[in-house]
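FAQ: What does the model actually see?

It sees only this:
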Amino acid sequence: MAFVVTENCIKCKFTDCVDVCPVDCFHEGPNFLVIDPDECIDCTLCEPECPANAIFAEDELPEGQEKFAELNAELSKNWPSITEVKSPLDGADEWNGKENKIDLLEQ
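And it is asked to produce this:
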């Protein structure tokens, strides 16, 4: 089981989770972070650090967020690793909690 970044990260991209990851399994896209499931060691440290509550264990994904397990696996292969905290995207606080952001995902 790996952890998965879900829809609420889109347009927010808080990176508090990156700071606590002991294996650097986060990868950064234009407006979203993902976790490489092959690198994740299920340590659970990232989940409580996410201000957007966008990280879940793969077997505990909220209804409608299941597709993000596959997206994390796919996108982590192409996006660069992120190992340092960065500022969130402009307007992150306004986007936090908005629904139906999947169409806004920039790949």
